[in-house]
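quick one, two chains, predict together pls
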Amino acid sequence: MADILIADRAQIDVCFSPFLYPVYEKEGQIVVVIDVLRATSAICTAFQYGVDKMIPVATVEEAMAYKQQGYLVGAERNAIAIEGFDFGNSPYSYMTEKIKGQTVVITTTNGTQAIEAAKNAYAVVIGSFLNITALCNWLIAENKPILLLCSGWKNKFNLEDTLFAGAVTEILSKHDNFKLLDGALATKYLYQQAHQNPYKFLNYSSHKERLSAMGLKDDIKYCLTLDQTQVIPILKDKYLVLNS
Amino acid sequence: MADILIADRAQIDVCFSPFLYPVYEKEGQIVVVIDVLRATSAICTAFQYGVDKMIPVATVEEAMAYKQQGYLVGAERNAIAIEGFDFGNSPYSYMTEKIKGQTVVITTTNGTQAIEAAKNAYAVVIGSFLNITALCNWLIAENKPILLLCSGWKNKFNLEDTLFAGAVTEILSKHDNFKLLDGALATKYLYQQAHQNPYKFLNYSSHKERLSAMGLKDDIKYCLTLDQTQVIPILKDKYLVLNS
């Protein structure tokens, strides 16, 4: 009987790159897309500030086509907001009245690529430290297999998304109804080392170095702040909307 | 001047799946293929016991063709030695006089796939806990960019190969001439948690569970033993030979 109970536990696994997603794809699993510095933090912030819908797109060309139709558009490549658009991917740029009730299009170096890769999953939700508790409570209630999909940096592993995957795994692993696979175990162990001071833990990470060199330390600190919002953006067809 | 020295440091990175290798491929880097449970441990053991050359092949069909030509052949799938061949991938099966001076063909679920993926790299060497110090000393002397390529399990991340990548990174990071990228940083942090008792650290890992269920705990323990040999198998054309 114990064996049956164990077999029934929902699995948690982690995929460290959108490129690797086909290896982890399976029916019926919830995919949490993670790009904490900064796309998924920006998306959570936009919903917290009242955006109605967001349309994640993979290319700047698609974003430009929407812009020409009159949409508000956020566009970032290589950590820089692209000129001619309304926002980049700094969460601070979405803390504005002008997005309230609007549909905002967004394209970023990594995060929107991960959403694109996972778009046919049973459910695709957006995770960041900003909505972590709300997200985990929802995942626990759903009790489905979970894949934590790290956006990484240009399909390579990165430390900050891994850290967030570990934070989620740490919370979920307190509930007996989940079985941690190897990727989840590894991120949980990492988070246990980092949780006292995630900012310091990321000191030598490549993207923290990149953003710090651009004067974006405040962005990093904000993106590592827990529970600034209860929103859980979820993909419905081509739109990110509030999970209800 | 300090900046120039930092820029000149050779990078260490980790690739967690053969499937992801194309993302990490670059000219001039040494690839260390890692499949500690058990292919690369078996290969190191075979060279320690006097094998002359090994031919890693990706498929059982290729292995069978060599067998029919009279070669000694090791063949494993899903942790089980395939019937009709001379060895599986237990290191113990290679501790025999009969391999001395011979050419042995080998195919395994994961390790030989990783070798195949990396075969065009500047150099491809075989890493395991059994040869870790000899390997690290050689890597330090070479002073080239290093990619630690974890074979994983059927293209998924696994904990034991990650742990070994961390052990290598921990040793190399004591030398200022290396720059650790995010994957290397993560594995180093993991190893720091695990190094007191790697066997226990792997307790919940999927492949340890798999091998333990098959009564292969002795194999696991041996594969986690440091420095049983000085050999560094290296790929030259289609052959693994002793590095000289």
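Chain B has a mean pLDDT of 94.
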